[in-house]
Amino acid sequence: SAPAAGIAARRPDIYYIILDSYPSQRSLEEFYDFDNAPFVDGLKSRGFQVADDSKSNYGATLLSLGSSLNMTYLDDVTAPFRETSDRTVMMDAVRDSAVVRTLREHGYRFVSISSGFSGTDPMPTADAELRFPKGSLTEFEVLAISTTPLAELPAFRETTDPFLLRRFAVLHGFEALAGQGPSREPTFVLAHILSPHPPFVFDAAGGMRERKGRFNRPKYSKDEYLDGFRGQVTFVNDRLIPAIDAILGRYESSNRPIIIVQGDHGPRSLRRRNNTTEAFYRERFSILNAYHVPKDIPCEIYPTISPVNTFRKLFAALFGTPYEMLSDESYFSTSHKPYAFKPVSALVQSDSPAPGDDEAEDHGDQ
């Protein structure tokens, strides 16, 4: 359908950049004693609107992306699976999403920048999939090999070391992003970058950190987690800003793209068994959520917008479609029963202090 009167007639390229576990500026200050103002100010100086009080709708990657890319909460689609841990229903929702279908109706092509995360790779609905390198194994395949004697053979070690592969995947993501620019058709670029999510494979300068425990169940003390996360956030910041500058530098001022930079959920230095403190939920659900929307597209971002409303807001502005804003809510679930959702919106807004130091556990589920 044609854009409504008064809505921008052009179809800007759209970049949706998911930084796994990237929290809000306020959360980094509260839980990590980390001042992220220079990075956030850098986004704002490049024309980004930052939703300072944004919370994720779900506490895990597949749930969060399944919701944001379908512009809806997940109760109906997951109801038959409530007692299971079947991830395929969410993998299907991410790979064949309402957002991509809607954009295709408006003439967009779909480019996926591969992360290696088995939940989102491969992306068979993409017109182009930028993988690292072509034919590389997914993290799931690597972890399967790592449990066999093959993993000890020198020929396999470098190509199947999951810590090294995570580094390659993240570096590939930033390089592939920085290489993007305008093409003949309007393009939707989805980039899922598996950082600053643990394990910590980058220090602040991009060097390799010491391995701690198994890749999918890293063991960090509370101080190691805080220090590792701060280093990885610094590394991500230092790679993302140049990538954004490279993208923007390829567009005429009259044809600026839309760029969304969003955490899928927050980190969890407070993760402990049966931890139900308000601070745990607040850390897990507070996210970075920033929007570069050109001035000719009327799209005012409000401070508490959550990912479920991201594309409702954008599509209303772009296509004149009357999308209503949903209530911004947060739901927690465990990896054992990912679809048994517990409403935690009141908890993530709470201002109770964080509990004292303890061992940080990361159970490896994205």
Helix tally?
13
Order of strands, main sheet, comes to 2-9-8-1-5-3-4
Instruction: Bin the helical content.
Output: 25-40%
pLDDT averaged residue by residue: 88
Q: What Rg do the Cα atoms give? A: 20 Å
Profile the largest sheet: 7 strands, mixed
**Helix and strand pattern:** EHHEHHHHEEHHHEEEHEHEHEEHE
Secondary structure class reads: alpha/beta
> So what's the overall shape?
globular
Ranges where pLDDT stays below 50 over 5 or more residues in a row are 1-6, 355-365
The total beta strand count reads 12
Strand content: 5-15%
Distance between the termini: 37 Å
Describe it.
By secondary structure, the protein is an alpha/beta fold. 34% of the residues lie in helices and 13% in strands. The chain has 13 helices and twelve strands. The protein has helices at residues 25-32, 37-45, 61-68, 75-78, 88-95, 98-105, 139-145, 154-160, 162-178, 222-249, 278-285, 310-319, 345-348; strands at residues 14-19, 48-50, 109-113, 128-130, 187-193, 213-214, 217-220, 258-263, 289-292, 331-332, 342-343, 360-361. The strands form three sheets. A seven-stranded mixed β-sheet has the order 2-9-8-1-5-3-4, with helices on both faces. It has a three-stranded antiparallel β-sheet with strand order 6-7-12. The chain has a two-stranded antiparallel sheet with strand order 10-11. The radius of gyration is 20 Å and the shape is globular. 43% of the residues are buried. Residues 1-6 and 355-365 have low confidence and may be disordered.
